Amino acid sequence: MSTACMLTEIRAEIDRLDREIVALIGRREELVRRAGRLKADADAVRAPDRVEQVIGKVRALAGESGADADVVEATYRAMIAAFIDLELRVRPEE
Ligand SMILES: C=C(O[C@@H]1C=C(C(=O)O)C=C[C@H]1O)C(=O)O
Hints:
This is Chorismate mutase. GO terms for molecular function: chorismate mutase activity. With 94 residues, the protein is mainly α. Helices cover 85% and strands 0% of the residues. The protein has a single domain, classed as Chorismate mutase (Chorismate Mutase Domain, subunit A).
């Protein structure tokens, strides 16, 4: 198979995975929104201790699955930051 064909196949597989990843992000978003509704104020929304707990957990999961822990951490920090912004945007005025 030519290099161009191999790249096309790999990209098709990446596109399939992206469909699954986006669906999972949507499910996670729903849970984050539910958690946000239970919180009293913006400090509770940010929950930095919980963020570090999640980061420690996903770094360990990366180790188990052979994923690069630094890539997983950077991805999760960006995603959690976006979710915190979302929680702050959709919460009623304090
Ligand atoms: C969903 C929560 O709120 C925020 C979002 C988190 C996340 O996306 O995992 C974790 C902590 C908070 O910054 C939570 O407190 O559990």
